[in-house]
Design a protein that fits this description.
heterodimer, A: alpha/beta, eight-stranded mixed beta sheet, 13 strands, globular, B: alpha/beta, Rossmann fold, four-stranded antiparallel beta sheet, binds adenosine-5'-triphosphate, binds iron/sulfur cluster, binds magnesium ion
């Protein structure tokens, strides 16, 4: 098996400049930034599923968009299959066009990501057209058919001439997945692919992603704010808070032995479908602070239930606690 | 259906819509449940199962084309369905209030949040301007919004705060019963937990009864005393939270539970429920769940099973319910 990681992200930063009010620039106040992604590193093995979890606004979508080049990164390196993405360097590198053929993204809102005026065939064939692939009509039909088939829309031909509004929510999300799969990508970045869906449809789509991964050995970055959906099929979980990864490790380990206080709180509020198992919940008050003015020291300290004095001054780095399990908290030390 | 006297008792509620094509869509059929004072009851079911229609029927706020064709809705000793629209106004908002589905996005963007709550209070002629203004700030405080944010506009509020503001507005006339339609669906888990905590707190301090509508079984398990599971406009199963989560008898409830991912059981496989809910304009003659049911028997396509009690406070509408062998 190929040992080169599918993806390696090193020291990734993505800052969005804040539009300054005229008064501020006249007063020569310093220019500020939204620090959406603030020094993130991780790697993804071939065939691995990594879940990226965190509250709204912590930077999940920004990471995803930066990974496939929809946003230019501010600083850092992205290495896809051993090649630096979009680099002007002497090292082996890969261009964006090539990358977008091999890595596909599923967007947050399945209802907005389908063109209402295109038929399902046109929607699924579009990536082939964009990338100038498979020009032969017969082969194109075969590719669309097999993508729809893989996405569980069978018999595929029945869907060719239909329009998105004629499909149920679950079927629409399957179409989105089919159009992401038609190029046979090696990497799939799924941004909240099931959050907008009903519970029964959710299970259907999660099962589908799990099958695709098993059948195709595809690597998946699965983004969500809901820990209960990732428990189900991620190999590893990365927990984000305000642009940083605060904990990363094997899924079972993170869920059953969480180390960071933020991870503990997130797990405690994930609803458990059994009233006999109602637990003590750690409900963090307030909302994630604005990533323009990050709190000093540990960025989680204003909401951290166990913060101590030093947390206001020291910015904790990820440290390895056990094989592959890292957390960034001043109170967590290697056992 | 329960011991003690219910605050709200719904019996055989049936609601139909006339579609633009002139067809009759039976959105609710024979819906029955009780809400006890100070209790939280969950209404769950997939999209289109009739949750919102149930609340709108109870509030008598159905859109044009919708009408209640049968049933009884007792609020204490009054049958709300027998009231004139004028009489109903004494109950709506004052005795029972609703937080509409998606309401947090329906705040007027060019009006201060405090003014919108003020207006809602004044609409009901309950107090003078000054008392209303004090009430606005008290309500904001009650839902965890600083009084100082009274004069901010909706876009200056986060999603969670807008939802709190909508809850404040529903509480304006101090109702005994609050209907909350998917109050946490668009919010992320932590904010969702905050809103649920808020609902629990106001319930305790005000002795409020709550009907919580959601498609999220996890949310229901966390906060509800009893649960109504709806399918295709009918009650599939109704019981205490423990009945529903640990002794479910309806095949649909069982599948729903298996389809719900559970953090406490990583790596479990999820059941899915293939197929789609029934078309309301063309309902199957037998059980509505029959086309998707994994346990169906021949009779299911002919008999529309009524909601029957299987044990105290536990009701199921399925031919295969416990103790039903006799009538097969
Ligand atoms: N184009 C942009 N310009 C300025 N700020 C932005 C831009 N895109 C994102 N942000 C900010 O960056 C931060 C991270 O946003 P992002 O969308 O990545 O969060 P997220 O974790 O995906 O949240 P959600 O769960 O709500 O989707 C937020 O504070 C957001 O307001
Ligand atoms: N004004 C209307 N005219 C015709 N049919 C309607 C109307 N309003 C609702 N319906 C139908 O009644 C059924 C129940 O809808 P309802 O909105 O109560 O479902 P719900 O359970 O609240 O779903 P969701 O989870 O999507 O909010 C649906 O099939 C819907 O299409
Ligand atoms: S470093 Fe301090 S504030 Fe940060 S997570 Fe650890 S205990 Fe909490
Ligand atoms: S009545 Fe029959 S089809 Fe309906 S839920 Fe019961 S077993 Fe299934
Ligand atoms: Mg996002
Ligand atoms: Mg609804």
């Amino acid at each position: 098996m190929n040992q080169t990681p599918m993806l390696e992200v090193r020291g990734l930063y993505k800052y969005f400049p804040v539009h300054q009010a005229l008064a501020d620039s006249l007063m020569r106040r310093p220019h500020s930034n939204v620090k959406a992604v603030d020094d993130v590193s991780f790697s993804l093995a071939r065939g691995e599923v990594l879940a990226v979890v965190g509250e709204s606004g912590c930077g999940k979508t920004t990471i995803a968009r930066t990974l496939i080049g929809l946003e230019a990164l501010t600083k850092g390196e992205i290495v896809f299959d051993g090649k630096l993405v979009n680099a002007h360097s002497q090292q082996p590198h890969i261009g964006l066009k090539q990358l977008r053929k091999r890595a596909q993204m599923i967007f947050q809102d399945p209802y907005e990501s389908l063109n209402p005026r295109a038929t399902i065939f046109e929607i699924v064939a579009e990536p082939l057209v964009v990338h100038g692939m498979i020009k032969d009509r017969k082969e194109r039909v075969a590719a669309v058919k097999s993508a729809l088939d893989d996405a569980g829309l069978r018999p595929a031909e029945d869907y060719f001439m239909r329009y998105p509004h004629e499909l149920s929510g679950g079927q629409r999300q399957r179409v989105v997945i089919a159009s992401a799969m038609v190029l046979q990508p090696e990497l799939l970045i799924a941004d909240e692919p099931v959050s907008m869906l009903d519970v029964s449809i959710r299970a259907e789509i999660l099962n589908l992603l799990r099958d695709l991964r098993q059948k195709r050995g595809i690597s998946i970055v699965f983004i969500t704010h809901d820990l209960s959906t990732v428990a189900y099929f991620a190999d590893r979980i990365a927990v984000m808070y305000l642009g940083r990864m605060v904990e990363i490790g094997p899924a079972r380990e993170v869920l059953q032995n969480p180390q960071h206080p933020y991870t503990k709180a997130l797990i405690s509020v994930a609803p458990v479908p059994n009233p006999r198992l109602r637990r003590e919940r750690v409900i963090l008050q307030g909302e994630t602070p604005n990533p323009i003015n990050l709190p000093s020291g540990c960025r989680f300290h204003p909401r951290c239930p166990v913060a101590v004095d030093m947390c206001k001054e020291n910015d904790p780095q990820l440290i390895e606690l056990k094989q592959g399990h890292q957390a960034a908290c001043l109170l967590v030390t290697k056992s | 259906m329960n011991n003690g006297k219910p605050l709200l008792s719904v019996r055989g509620l049936t609601t139909e819509f006339t579609t633009p094509e002139g067809k009759i869509a039976r959105a609710l059929e024979d819906v029955s449940f009780d809400v006890m004072p100070g209790q939280t009851i969950g209404l769950v079911g997939e999209s289109g199962s009739g949750k919102t229609t149930t609340l709108m029927s109870l509030m008598r706020l159905l859109p044009a084309g919708g009408r209640i064709t049968a049933g009884k809705v007792m609020f204490n000793d009054t049958n709300l369905l027998a009231l004139s629209e004028r009489e109903m106004r004494d109950y709506r908002w004052k005795s029972m209030a609703i937080v509409f589905q998606g309401a947090m996005n329906a705040l007027n963007p060019v009006m201060k949040v405090g003014d919108q709550i003020h207006e809602a209070i004044m609409l009901h002629n309950l107090m003078d301007e000054d008392a209303a203004e004090k009430r606005v700030k008290d309500l904001l405080e009650m839902v965890g919004i600083a009084r100082t944010r009274r004069d901010q506009y909706p876009h200056q509020y986060s999603g969670g705060m807008r939802q709190r503001a909508m809850i404040a507005m529903a509480l304006a006339c101090a109702p005994d019963l609050l209907f909350a339609d998917e109050p946490t669906t668009a919010l992320d888990v932590m904010i969702q937990a905050q809103v649920l905590q808020l609902l629990r707190e106001i319930q305790k301090s005000l002795g409020l009864a709550i009907v919580l509508v959601t498609h999220d079984l996890g949310v229901v398990a966390e906060v509800c005393d009893s649960v109504v599971v709806m399918y295709g406009g009918k009650v599939a199963e109704y019981g205490t939270a423990d009945h529903i989560y640990n002794e479910a008898q309806h095949p649909y409830t069982q599948k729903l539970l298996e389809a719900f991912p559970d953090v406490s059981k990583p790596g479990d496989t999820l059941a899915s429920i293939p197929g789609t809910p029934p078309r309301l304009t063309n309902l199957p003659p037998g059980c509505r769940f029959e086309p998707r049911c994994h346990l169906k028997i021949e009779k299911c396509s002919q008999v529309n099973p009524p909601l029957l009690e299987v044990s105290p406070k536990h009701y199921v509408s399925c031919i295969l319910r416990e103790g039903a062998e006799a009538d097969l």
